[in-house]
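Thread: nickel (II) ion complex, take 2
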Amino acid sequence: MAPSFDDGNSLFNFVVRDGNGVKGMVDSGLSTVPQAYMQPPIERIDKDRARKHGHPPIDLSKLGGPEHDEVAKQIVRAAENLGFFQVVNHGVPVDLLESLKDTAHDFFSLPAEKKAVYRDDVSPTPLVNYGTSFVPQKEKALEWKDYISMQYTNDAEALQHWPEEIRDVSLEYLRTSMSMVRKLLQVLLENLGVKPEDSMIDVLVDKKMVNMNYYPTCPNSDLTVGVGRHSDMGTLTILLQDGIGGLYVKIEDDSEFGKKGEWVEIPPVPSALVINVGDMVQVLSNGKYKSAEHRVRTTRTKSRVSIPIFTMPNATAKIAPLPEVVEKDGNTLYKEFVLADYMKNFFSNAHDGKKSLDFAKINSA
Ligand code: OGA
Ligand code: NI
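Output below.
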């Protein structure tokens, strides 16, 4: 039986500890949002005031063709300013995108006990983790989101350990995405004056993770967030979102994309994927490419799914601004660090905008 959600402890036990998630709470019949999910006014999202990002998606089939330079320029400009862009003709079959979204809905509709076996402390494998919010133990207000996260090591381990309901489509998504990721990195690195070797790109995308996010309907969607303000910690993120919308990005500096401090929505575009720059690319580029702050609102009438692939270097990799860039810039904004240390810091704090990057900043005030 569902407990009283007015009591913080019993809510925590039901949603987080027992693995019922926000989904379980909503399914038990909720008419108002519990206190634990109410965001302070400054974090609430005023959807009527946000502008939609109007740039058309970038056509990746033109890379390597006569319009290569123009397309490369579009990618670079987006990475330098907004830190987000959308792509089409990305190599991931469009019917696979549809299956992924359906599969995510089916998975989160499973009984709680099917999902809860993958909770952090009981999961039969370190590769798979099911949870809710981001770091519920540390958050002042919880995020209205459940997720499952699958780390990729190799095909055999994925086939053995990933949940069978979602394994095959997730693996196919990863398989068909990676050549696009490599091409994008090639373009971004070349623009920095680096001739990227395959081995360098191998290092940058050594670790890969496929997540499925589930944002249940919310009775007071103005008071909650699906995901709070954060940047992604890795190299590049590939995100499949469904048609519901609600992903917002903050503009860091005035540019053709908008005014500094403004939040713009990345609107759903059928068959497109969203790409965003992660903290590692911001560091490597000595701040030229922006790992943008972003967040997700909740919706009242329909549950939303999104399926990101996170790429990042190996845990032991040493990360620092690229020497070619530092030489040209005459200064370095970030110190060298080991990826595992960065990650530990990232995952031990609640989402707080771009604060994660302070870990690497030189002279951070
Ligand atoms: C994330 C994220 C956005 C979305 O998982 O890091 O920002 O639209 N997701 O779900
Ligand atoms: Ni994100």
